[in-house]
């Protein structure tokens, strides 16, 4: 359903359209961070393209620059300020519009710094005002106004924002926004507001539409997908079962669930579905119960291991990926070994590894026993090594199996071979015809090569 607020924005889209028509204006967008941000950017582009901007071929030739920021780790800040330096030079020579938005703009110390050091930025918008970019842009175009449109609220849901998708076979669908968990290291609950779920009918309508347009793979997105609340007796498991019924959608993924909400009905819904990927991403964050407690994760090392075993018992073909943070305040050598121990016990298909990064405003930032950078980096390298040592051994289980592959195109490293991914995200290359691109086919895996598998149709 189209929200009233979006109807209002459509009027601004029309107004800008009139101003921009026949000017051949270009946009450039840079997205930092997670898939939720990518999905937000697809909405930004959806609106921008309706306002007569087309995608610029190179970074240097755009008329409007949009950066959708992330603030989960410190390196995103360095990246933003670097880009702003580049944009300053462009703006000295040409009349461009710069709009910076997203998570980092919800942080007051950042917007203050921007005002001080980067006053040439035209529009600053937050996570709760992304949908208002037409209105903010109109003010800038019409009156040359500098606009700061950031609000700190629990959060709303806006249906009906135009979307321009990055891909024509795979699509992401946000099912819930915000987070109530307040893991002590994490800034997300402060910048994205409280948990709120889209209505099941809005989600299902969007996915049905995508299926009709030929999309085959859907990723359900949320900061904490398995606390999805679609109303009375309607939880994440119910939603998974409904999405499973949609004809045309052949692969269903979801990120990220929280271990504490991984209930039996979710496990059953995954088990019963032929479409839901059996690569399940379950963020661990740390292996030590002591550290998990300080992180406010609400599970112990043993409970995590038991959850994985339970899923394995129910779904023998299930495999796992995870997120791990090293160097959380107070992490001792023994705590870190608990993390390595879990990595040894569970053959993760993939581990997204992060060095703990202090975030202003979080509980962990105020903890006194911060770990020196050098130790954090050394632990990171050790974790990486212990994972990489197991990749080949782990890959061997694929040899001789037949996997469902969405064919992406020709391989970059070997132009005669086609490439695609298993539903467990392994890259596979195989010989075949061009007309297979975009289709889902069965490929038999014949050998493993650490970072990819080779197969035959
Ligand atoms: N430092 C390092 N990693 C972090 N993450 C979240 N906050 C931080 C932080 N302050 C990681 C977590 C989360 C992933 C998206 O980013 O592992 O699951
Ligand atoms: Fe951050 Fe924890 Fe919420 Fe994930 S569950 S977004 S890590 S607070």
Give descriptors for this structure.
single chain; 457 residues; 6-stranded parallel β-sheet; 5-stranded mixed β-barrel; binds 5'-deoxyadenosine; binds iron/sulfur cluster
Layout of secondary structure:
Elements: H1 4-20, E1 25-31, H2 35-50, E2 53-55, E3 64-69, H3 75-93, E4 97-102, H4 108-117, E5 123-125, H5 133-143, E6 147-149, E7 170-174, E8 176-177, H6 188-192, E9 196-197, H7 200-212, E10 217-221, H8 236-244, E11 251-255, H9 264-272, E12 279-281, H10 289-294, H11 301-314, E13 319-326, H12 333-345, E14 350-355, H13 373-395, E15 402-410, E16 418-421, E17 427-430, E18 440-448, E19 453-456
Parallel strand pairs: 1-2, 1-3, 3-4, 4-5, 5-6, 7-10, 10-11, 12-13, 13-14, 17-19
Antiparallel strand pairs: 8-9, 15-16, 15-18, 16-17, 18-19
Helix pairs in contact: 1-5, 8-9, 12-13
The protein binds 5'-deoxyadenosine and iron/sulfur cluster.
Please give a structural write-up.
The protein is of the alpha/beta class. The protein contains 13 helices and 19 strands. It has helices at 4-20, 35-50, 75-93, 108-117, 133-143, 188-192, 200-212, 236-244, 264-272, 289-294, 301-314, 333-345, 373-395; strands at residues 25-31, 53-55, 64-69, 97-102, 123-125, 147-149, 170-174, 176-177, 196-197, 217-221, 251-255, 279-281, 319-326, 350-355, 402-410, 418-421, 427-430, 440-448, 453-456. The strands form five sheets. Strands 2-1-3-4-5-6 form a six-stranded parallel β-sheet, with helices on both faces. The longest helix is centred in the C-terminal third of the chain and has 23 residues, at 373-395.
